[in-house]
Request: fold
Amino acid sequence: MKNEVKIHEVDPSLNSRRSFLKLSGLTLVTTGLVLAGCSDNDNDNDMPDTSLPGIRNGVFDLGSGDFGVLTYAYALEQLEADFYTKVVNASSFNTVFSSLEREVLTDLYHHEVVHRDFFKAALNGALPDPSSQLLPSLAFNYGSLNFNSRAEVLATAKALEDTGVAAYNGAGKLIKTADYLLLAGKIVSVEARHASAIRSLINPNSKDFAGDDIVNMSTGLDDAKDPSKILPIAAGFITTKFTAKYLP
Reply:
């Protein structure tokens, strides 16, 4: 079944750069891309295939290679989807945020839910034994974060979106299959749009949408971080235990 989300025109108060929220990233769901159900290793009975996610020593591990990266992305998309679900369902959502901000945050909510569900469906169809190899639905705890505070919500959204962009950028070099790399490239472009939109909500009509803190002035490139740098940040919100022993 096709997932459709209505994308609203963005108010001119965010200037023309913000019109990119009218994006086509959600066509990811209808591309027909199917993840290949294979692994990089020919397994010996006494040598477990570390490329496959699954329970190891009683704890779920993300695995390595393409499946490991895609499961890693699925974990991060679960976090973002959960965060925005809580944002749009907060009791004061309609009063704390302006109509423009509500439109942007609602669009981001829909995007992240689609991303999460896409990874779940794709991995479920590709893993040899999804009943034991698919990352379970994660649980989250946001500590003292007040979802009825505009400042706290936007600051957290900024941190999550910037982290998400750096995560996809850093994981790209770990992906071996061209179709998977194409998928990651499409999603990171959407995540970068999210990051820019949130930054412009916080500081409208400024250069913060592509600030020096995330774009390297000497290379003109965005941040890129390995999973080992990203997961400790995400762990501040994710309460479900899992490991990533075979990801750098």
Q: What stands out?
A: The CA atoms of residues 53 and 63 lie 4 Å apart. The radius of gyration is 18 Å. Confidence is low (pLDDT under 50) at residues 1-34, 36-47.
